[in-house]
Amino acid sequence: MAVPVKICGLSTQETLDAAVQGGAAWVGLNFYAPSPRSVTPAQAAGLTAAMPEGVSKVGLVVDGDDQMFETILSQVPLDLLQLHGSESPERVAQVKSRFGLPVMKVIQVSGPEDLDTARTYEDVADCF
Questions:
Q1: How far is residue 118's CA from residue 32's CA, in Å, rounded to a whole number?
Q2: What DSSP character marks residue 51?
Q3: Which of 5, 56, 68, 73 is least crowded, fewest Cβ atoms below 10 Å from its Cβ?
Q4: Each residue of 43-64: b (16+ CB within 10 Å) or e?
């Protein structure tokens, strides 16, 4: 059985090429500036310009506002938005509706009770 894999935090052409050649279904571009693996929209556009068909581009954003998404999406044709902050279910729905892309919501899990938090996103997130 083949398992689709997402490789995130790619910030160089070498790492992106290795992920694609290794069969990654998704490549993750981190737009969270404090991260050492972050990229700017211009860098991400350059990195992904020659990506082959069939590999999806994921943009990781932490508590981004609409202007941030507009800036990123004006330069990088993403296939999925990964919301990695404290976005509420309402905010997830707004982002999904406004930008017309599927949304992955990251949920921090430290115990079984955190799964209840995930359930509040079931109707708005496309995946976790």
A1: 22
A2: P
A3: 5
A4: bbbebbeebeeebbbbbbbbeb
